[in-house]
Every structure is written in C-alpha cells, then in structure tokens.
Amino acid sequence: MKKILSLILALTMVFTLAACGNSSAGESEPSEIPSQTEGSAVPEESEITVPTENTTQPEESTQPEESSEPEAVAGSTSLIVYFSWSGNTESVANEIQAQTGADVFEIIPEEAYTDDYDTLLDIAQEEQRNDARPVIAGTVENFDQYEVIYFGYPNWWGDMPMILYTFLDEYDFSGKTIAPFVTSGGSGFSGTISTIQSMEPDATVVDGLSLGSSAAKNPSSDVSDWLSSLGLSE
C-alpha cells in the first residue's frame, strides 16, 4: 500500500513539473503578428490631401472690366483725350495725367484695329481715301465742364487716324483750349494742327508736343518742359 502511494506521489510530481515547463516555453515564443514600426502608422483623414478638379484652375479674376468712361477727378477742368495703337501715345498720355491730374478718356474703336502692322497701314490708307468716321466705343460725360483738352494721337500717313475726326465731329470744343500731342517715326504733326484748327474754329489751339518713338517711351522731361512752356501744369 505504501508503495502504491509513493508511486502516485511520484507521478503527480512529474506531471506538475512538465506543466510548468510548457508554460515558460510559451512566454518566450515571438508573436505571429508584427508590431507597427515608426512611420508605418496609417494617417488619419485630416492628414490625407485629396486633390479636387479646381485645384489647378486659376482663380476667377476680380479686376473690374475696362471702362471707356473718363477716369474722373473731382473738380477737374482738364481732360486728356487720346488714341493709341502701339502704346507710344498712351505712354505720353499717362505722363501728362501724372503731371496734371487731368481726367483721361481713351478713344477705343468699336471695331478693334488689327494687330498686324502691314495690314493696319492698308486700313489706315483706305479710311483716309474714304474720309471714314470709325465708331468710338463709349462717350465723355459732362464734356462741357472741361476747359483744357489734351488731344493725342499717332501720325498715320501724314494725318490723324480717322477715328480722331470722329471725336472732333461729335464734341463741341467752343471756348476750350486744345493742347495737341503726337507720336511718330519722325513726321511730327504734319498738317494735323491746321486740320484741328479748321475743324474747331471756336477753340484755342496751343503749341503741341511732338515725340518720336524712343522719346515717347520715357516722356517725363519732355512733357514737363512742354506743360511749363504753356503754363498749363497743375
């Protein structure tokens, strides 16, 4: 009987030791599921940038559309009226405005001229032959309030562009002072001063400013001297 008890005790101890050994071995085995390493985390929604259809599209321009109305200065009695094709006459007009503070009205044809120089020459000659009056887009409001009109244009084939004739026909210059300015390749005013005087006999036409293409790009000094000689600078 004692031998049987001893055998049972011995077997019990063996089984206990075996169970403990299996438990320790299990704790040291690596996990089958790999852990996340640094940088491998999935970003949250707030970190994900999703491009939209409008991402590369330019924003809609907020600049106001160009107006053919004169840029008014309260109480101004001077107006710069000019037509420019290449930008030279516009450069001079801008300088006059900077030095006098006058209002500005750009003569813009209702039907735009071509950008091609050779084609433009043909158009200019045809308009002269036909004594044309191209239509002007826009009008000058309160033209009567202006006492001095700075009148600028390029020399086309020894004459003003015919759209300047349109302006002279449409507005009454009686009692006003006309200060003409012209840009050219060297022809100057040609006979345009006499033309203006004959079309506006009740206006006073003063000495004009004539600039070549190079001078027109930097006209500050010439404009200043001209305005001083006329006593019209403000």
Q: Key terms for this structure?
A:
234 residues, alpha/beta, six-stranded parallel beta sheet, 7 helices, 36% helix, disordered N terminus
Write the SSE topology.
Elements: H1 2-28, E1 78-82, H2 88-100, E2 103-106, E3 108-109, H3 117-129, E4 136-137, E5 148-154, H4 162-170, E6 177-184, H5 192-199, E7 204-205, E8 209-212, H6 213-216, H7 220-230
Name the helix and strand elements from N-terminus to C-terminus, one letter apiece. Answer: HEHEEHEEHEHEEHH
Mean pLDDT: 78
* Biggest sheet statistics: 6 strands, parallel
Q: Which of globular, elongated, flat, extended, rod-shaped describes the shape?
A: globular
Short summary of the structure?
The chain is an alpha/beta fold. 36% of the residues lie in helices and 15% in strands.
